[in-house]
Amino acid sequence: MSNAIEDRQNDRSEEQPLILVCNDDGIDSEGIAALAGAMSALGEVHVIAPMDEQSAVGHAITVRDPVRAREWDFAEEAGVAGAYAVSGTPADCVKLAVHQLLSRRPQLVVSGINRGPNTAVNVIYSGTVSAATEASILGVDAAAFSLCEWDGGHYDAAAEVAQRVARRILAKGLPPGLLLNVNIPNRALGELEGLLVTRQARSRWEESFARRVDPFDRPYYWLAGEFIDLDEGDGTDLDAIDDGYVSITPLQHDLTAHEHLAAFKEWTWEED
Amino acid sequence: MSNAIEDRQNDRSEEQPLILVCNDDGIDSEGIAALAGAMSALGEVHVIAPMDEQSAVGHAITVRDPVRAREWDFAEEAGVAGAYAVSGTPADCVKLAVHQLLSRRPQLVVSGINRGPNTAVNVIYSGTVSAATEASILGVDAAAFSLCEWDGGHYDAAAEVAQRVARRILAKGLPPGLLLNVNIPNRALGELEGLLVTRQARSRWEESFARRVDPFDRPYYWLAGEFIDLDEGDGTDLDAIDDGYVSITPLQHDLTAHEHLAAFKEWTWEED
User: Fold this and answer.
1) A7 belongs to a structural domain
2) Quick one: closest CA in A to B248, which residue?
């Protein structure tokens, strides 16, 4: 009996899951250090992340230029087996990690902890989410974590939440083609109300561009805007965050609007 | 009676739809000239597109830098009311066009005609599709057009198809939150088998990186890969193209995996 337990423990340590940690804020950001630390309790952690901030890159990949990777000293964070800073996007990092830099296939890819929320329509612009999406495309379970605060905040609590969610994913596995997008209110752990499974809120940016003129009299434009929640229904990611809950949204990377296929098949395309 | 017809015609010319043409191959590409020409039969055409090739940028937007727009001489193509080359991504072009450069709101945004297919998993990396996605987020009907050929090809036939699809969208309108992703086999118009409404095929890239070393002995990596169709079902975009049909896939930008929400709500998140 005790032998069996010992054997199981040995098995478990030999089979320690490899966890890849990525982000879009850059490898030297506060959030990725917190996330790597939290993952080190669950497996062999490798950090492979962009050298520089890559916010709002969406699912960009680098196809016309080479990417570079340089070993990174992640010493301040205990329990990281290896780290590389990559010259590309978050999706590049995941591709390069899985196909080139890691010695074996990761069981889990986690991305974050992002500085600022990735809720509602912002999911589609998010480099943080795209790292997890790329992992899911490659058939690896993945989750993205974002702290709903731009200036500092409770990364310790967010890391605790990330560890809990990652532990669940490692234990149960995700259905193919899905990833989890987790947004965490900026609160101490004890102040979080719990975890809710949500859907993306319908929303848009009320955008404007500030037009300026450079010293050579040429115009340039800065994107600015105000975020608008258009959703009047229940169960959205924005609602959960507003109410102090961690929001967990399952996302898919098949973009086909399946429930509209039948209607479009009835359109007459051939004539005017 | 003849007066009524004349009035209607006047109304129609006053209400001529404004059509925005964008792409990701750059404003001086063959495909966008063909698309702009085809659209000029349907409305007042404005071309606002990236200065340089922006392939595989996904849904990147420029948030940390300003973007520039410079008036572009699109004279070789009849019927274009105005054109700008923009320093940003396809999504930037659409935002800047709608919020700043166009004098009124477009009724339709078309993107392309892309050099090479945007089918299956490639949809998520596509700058061409992202221009249409951004339009849909902004509440404007939109479609992306891609010619399934990398070197030259039947842009004239693809433009004819684009005109037909655009005419349909202008007549019927799209449901909110949807855009159309159109892929066109590289054939003369008479050789196309017809148009099919499809879903994205499940697929992935069998990727590898070519590792090289620069003159300073530092490694760099080129992404390379072979595309794999994993889908054994019917009705995919890849099937349609293989069979000589134009593929029309309705896409959504809400990424929530709605049909999995209930299952995830049964997960126990709070304890180990």
Assistant:
1) no
2) A264
Cα dihedral: B154, B226, B123, A19 (round 10): -170
Please name the amino acid found at residue A152. G
Q: Domain containing B38: what range? A: 9-201+233-265
The model's pLDDT over A159-203, given as tens digits with 9 standing for 90+, comes to 999 999 999 999 999 999 999 999 999 999 999 999 999 999 998
Q: Model-level pTM?
A: 0.89
Model confidence over A132-145: pLDDT tens digits? Answer: 999 999 999 999 99
Domain assignment of residue A191, yes or no: yes
Q: What is the CATH number of the domain that holds A106?
A: 3.40.1210.10
The dihedral built from the CA positions of residue B22, B28, B33 and B35, taken in this order, carries a sign that is negative
CB A109 within 8 A of CB A137: no
Q: Taking CA atoms, what residue in A is nearest to B134?
A: A124
Could you give the CA distance from residue B242 to residue B191 in angstroms, rounded to a whole number?
A: 13
Q: How large is the average pLDDT for residues B32-37?
A: 96
For residue A11, what pLDDT band results from cuts at 50, 70 and 90? very low
Q: How many domains, in total, are found in chain A? A: 1
- Chain A touched by B195 (CB under 8 Å): yes
Read off the pLDDT band of B3 (50, 70, 90). very low
Handedness of CA B100, B101, B106, B109 (dihedral sign): negative
- pLDDT value at residue A271: 63
Q: Which residues contact A227 (CB under 8 A, 6 or more apart)?
A: A120, A122, A203, A205, A206
Query: B37 near B79, Cβ under 8 Å?
Result: yes
pLDDT at B272: 52
B54 in A contact zone (CB under 8 Å): no
Interface of B with A in 241-260 (CB under 8 A): 248-258, 260
Structural domain contains residue A122: yes
Whether A136 maps to a domain, the answer reads yes
Q: Is A105 on the interface with B (CB under 8 A)?
A: no
Report the interhelical angle of A155-172 vs A30-39 (nearest 10°). 40
d(CA B142, CA B135): 6
Whether A147 and A31 have beta carbons less than 8 Å apart is answered as yes
